[in-house]
Amino acid sequence: MSEKTDADVVPDGGTTGEESPQSAITAQFDKIKQTRRRRAFGWLALLVFLGFVTVQAFAAAELLAADFRMESLLNSMFHGANPFFPTISIGALPFLDITEYFEFIQQENLLYDPEVGGLLFQWPPNLGDIYAFFFTELGIFRIFGEAGVTLAMGFIGTVLGFPLALVFGTMGSERVTPFPFNFIFRGTMSFIRSVPAIIWALIFIPLLGLGPASASLAIAFDTIGNLGRLFVDELEEIEDGPIEAMRTTGASKPQVVFFGMLSQVRTAFIAWTLYIFEINVRVAVSVGVIGAGGLGFIVESQRGLLRFTDMMAALFAIFILIISVELFSQRLRHRLRSDEQKMGIWELITGFPNRMAQSVLK
């Protein structure tokens, strides 16, 4: 073996046949710079493409040449016989006159029906009226007036759609049904999702007529597609350990599915169902616009009569309903999380100022 000569030695102590540490570091930095440069060009190209597509979308939506009539909008919102936002002057300052909203809400029984509520809220209590409230008049939802009709449509749509969503969502997972047979269920849910709930309501009108019944069935179909898809996604993310453990013990396929798979996603399934229930109440408002009843029908009827003040009162009632449903759903989901402190509805309401102050001080 020949000895290394002085000519083979480089100033940093290495040899000409070996890459110096400094050269390796420099090469690595060059690679990082090139990677960052390619990413920068990629993001720039993506932004240019999105900008181009956005301009095309504005043109297709006729917003580039739209005739904005701001004066007309302001007049309809604050002036005229039936403005969206009626005002009252206190001194020299105008304020929103919400009393007109509450008068219409009370007049049309949007949030409370005193005739049905009178069966329950009376002193001394009348057992016959209480029995009628629960079993004859069926007033649990009717006590909330038109809001109760909307709430009932969203609730029954969720209840009717959940079982089929569970079946289709489970069978649509490749962990349960092998490819390509699972796409029979996935394709069915995709077809259901491709048709909006308001169109399903129009389809069911010849069957049940125009009313809450056809709307509830439409929301149930919509639930099958949306909730079933969420169930599929949850099943695709479960751990393999419990499944393999059950298979090694000789468990059958149904046992593996029920105890090895669905047991892992039970809490997530309940949470997603509550979330879809919130959405279904909103969908019930939209379906009501075509005449299915509830608050959506009130909004559309008042709009058709150009009574914009009353229409805004109905929208205010919708806001109260949606916030109440979300509050109820949030508390149920909160109780599903075993690692968090339990908090009841009363504690949630009475402790709100204290929690708000703590959030501000953080």
UniProtKB/TrEMBL annotation:
<dbReference type="InterPro" id="IPR005769">
    <property type="entry name" value="PhnE/PtxC"/>
</dbReference>
<feature type="transmembrane region" description="Helical">
    <location>
        <begin position="283"/>
        <end position="299"/>
    </location>
</feature>
<feature type="domain" description="ABC transmembrane type-1">
    <location>
        <begin position="147"/>
        <end position="329"/>
    </location>
</feature>
<keyword id="KW-1133">Transmembrane helix</keyword>
<keyword id="KW-1003">Cell membrane</keyword>
<dbReference type="Pfam" id="PF00528">
    <property type="entry name" value="BPD_transp_1"/>
</dbReference>
<keyword id="KW-0472">Membrane</keyword>
<comment type="similarity">
    <text>Belongs to the binding-protein-dependent transport system permease family.</text>
</comment>
<keyword id="KW-0813">Transport</keyword>
<feature type="transmembrane region" description="Helical">
    <location>
        <begin position="311"/>
        <end position="328"/>
    </location>
</feature>
<feature type="transmembrane region" description="Helical">
    <location>
        <begin position="190"/>
        <end position="208"/>
    </location>
</feature>
<feature type="transmembrane region" description="Helical">
    <location>
        <begin position="41"/>
        <end position="66"/>
    </location>
</feature>
<protein>
    <submittedName>
        <fullName>Phosphonate ABC transporter, permease protein PhnE</fullName>
    </submittedName>
</protein>
<dbReference type="GO" id="GO:0005886">
    <property type="term" value="C:plasma membrane"/>
</dbReference>
<keyword id="KW-0812">Transmembrane</keyword>
<feature type="region of interest" description="Disordered">
    <location>
        <begin position="1"/>
        <end position="24"/>
    </location>
</feature>
<dbReference type="InterPro" id="IPR035906">
    <property type="entry name" value="MetI-like_sf"/>
</dbReference>
<feature type="transmembrane region" description="Helical">
    <location>
        <begin position="147"/>
        <end position="169"/>
    </location>
</feature>
<dbReference type="InterPro" id="IPR000515">
    <property type="entry name" value="MetI-like"/>
</dbReference>
